[in-house]
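re: the backbone from monday

yeah here it is again, tokenized this time
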């Protein structure tokens, strides 16, 4: 419990809003998606998931968490396909660097794929796993939103990390 509290305080000290973002891609994502007035779910991670699916017009999604979330996504968006070969979005509770590299090796991710990881500040192990993912050279954009983290593989963008309050 103390880890999460201390982690949140550190997050607050480092975090910013849209005014601290210099990437047009991330600025648009933050202002038009994350900060949109429409709240789709009370859980912040699931709210980010649902908003991101709509914002990026995702069609091919893999959800590695509770089946209720997959049902919620399927009911909210009609044209969603789950567990396909090429992913627009992956939503998971945990991921290691080797898991990510396996996705790359199997060519399950494309240039605009998004990986959304729930609870990246839950405990030391999840925080360390998050930091190892952010450090990978293939991850060009990473966004720490405390409740969850987003990773992007965008070849046209310089590697940047953002800490955004939602």
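seq for it, each position gets an aa:
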């Amino acid at each position: 419990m103390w880890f999460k509290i201390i982690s949140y305080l550190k997050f607050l000290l480092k975090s910013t809003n849209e005014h601290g973002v210099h990437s047009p891609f991330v600025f648009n994502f933050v202002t038009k998606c994350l900060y949109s007035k429409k709240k789709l779910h009370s859980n912040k991670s699931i709210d980010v998931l649902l908003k991101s699916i709509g914002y990026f017009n995702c069609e091919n999604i893999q959800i590695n968490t509770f089946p209720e979330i997959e049902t919620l996504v399927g009911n909210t968006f009609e044209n969603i396909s789950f567990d396909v070969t090429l992913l627009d979005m992956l939503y998971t509770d945990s991921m290691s660097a080797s898991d990510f590299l396996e996705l790359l090796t199997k060519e399950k991710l494309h240039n605009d794929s998004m990986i959304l990881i729930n609870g990246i500040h839950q405990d030391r192990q999840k925080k360390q796993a998050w930091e190892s993912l952010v450090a990978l050279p293939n991850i060009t954009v990473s966004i720490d939103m405390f409740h969850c983290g987003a990773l992007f593989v965008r070849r046209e963008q310089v590697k940047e990390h953002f800490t955004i309050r939602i």
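Residues 2-14 form the longest helix (13 residues). The chain is about 40% helix and 20% strand.
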